[in-house]
Amino acid sequence: MTSPRVALVHERFTEVAGSEHVVEQLSAQWPDARVHVPIARPKGVPSGLRRTPETTWLNQLYRLGGERSYAPLMPLMPNVFRRMDIGDVAAVIISHHAFATQAVFATSAATIAYVHSPARWAWDASLRQGEAGGRAGAAALRMLASTARRDELAAAPLLNQVVANSTTVAQRIRQWWGRDAVVVHPPVDTDAFTPDPGTCREDFFLVAGRLVPYKRPDLAILAANAAGVPLVVTGDGRSLEYCRSIAGPTVVFLGHVSHAQLLNLLRRTRALLMPGVEDFGIVPVEAMACGTPVIALGRGGALDSVVPHVTGQFVSGVLDEEIVAGFVSAIRAFDGSIYDAAAIRQHAELFSRSIFRRRMQAVVDGVLAS
């Protein structure tokens, strides 16, 4: 039996990615919960959301702008969250990665923040490089980062419970917010990603997901070039053209692929490559749910999901050259026969949707009982 009178707050519904699937599963656990969000567009709302999201006046501006970019609206978001009409509820679950914890000021209910990460771009100046055009844009982004840090620090002490999506994110929360957090890994659709005993492994490695700078697909491409091995790259994003420009003859780009195509690739590839530092990383667990091993940079969320010599292996390094060299070595020495697909699949099931919902139910029940 679920806890009564719960409300959900999310950053934005502009695209469906990992954080949106978290809210989708929270909505499945509390189907009567109202879902509050500053802005939303139909393509950004996950199909399993039980109730239509309730937007704010900011959504009118978003629509007037043709729903092309939410970036110009970001400075307005903190105040919008503080003034949300959340209503009379027992608990509010806030899905946070930039400004959403400001909703703690809009309610007297118990608040639980599910933190995908504190705003990394606000706390780590290196992540803002190249994100704004010219000096004026860079100055504006610095000011917004200062506001985000200030607002996160103001909201953090008021939250009844902080939940991190990985051990790495829990460490950031402790470092930047001065709060301890319980770790509840995000939900992975282990029902949709499954092994197929009839599918044979083929001679290629795989990079899957959005092609954006922090995921570092370029490092995997450089490693494949140096190792001379076939690499299939799926997905699109602002790093696509750069990745194409550095790719050697063994690298193939497929662009955006359907679920069926991705599933087929995950079942056929020798291993998935994960060269970036993820907050958690859903795609590697989807690969493991297919019985596929993962070669990952040994930092970030991969430390929670990849078990060395059981579900994959880690590559070390800090500098780009070190990381590329580590992937080259791992790729050349890779032996898929040492991995048991059934054991990899069994491990992936620890990150299922049902386990996520059960753990979040326990968190909310604990807060309401205290």
List the SSEs and their pairings:
Layout: E1 6-10, H1 18-29, E2 35-36, H2 58-64, H3 77-82, E3 91-96, E4 110-115, H4 120-123, H5 134-155, E5 161-164, H6 167-177, E6 182-183, E7 205-207, H7 217-227, E8 231-234, H8 240-246, E9 251-255, H9 259-268, E10 271-274, H10 282-289, E11 294-297, H11 302-305, E12 312-315, H12 320-333, H13 341-348, H14 353-369
Parallel strand pairs: 1-2, 1-3, 3-4, 4-5, 5-6, 7-8, 7-10, 8-9, 10-11, 11-12
Structural class of the secondary structure composition?
A: alpha/beta
Average of the residue pLDDT scores: 93
**Domains counted in the coordinates: how many?**
2
Rg over CA atoms: 21 Å
Q: Summarize the helix and strand pattern as letters.
A: EHEHHEEHHEHEEHEHEHEHEHEHHH
- Classified by CATH, the class of the largest domain is Alpha Beta
Oligomerization category of the chains in this entry = single chain
CATH topology grouping of the largest domain: Rossmann fold
Model regions low in confidence, pLDDT < 50 over at least 5 residues: none
Helical element count? 14
Which strand order does the major sheet show? 2-1-3-4-5-6
Which percent range describes the beta-strand content?
5-15%
| Secondary structure: helix percent | 25-40%
Largest sheet: 6 strands, parallel
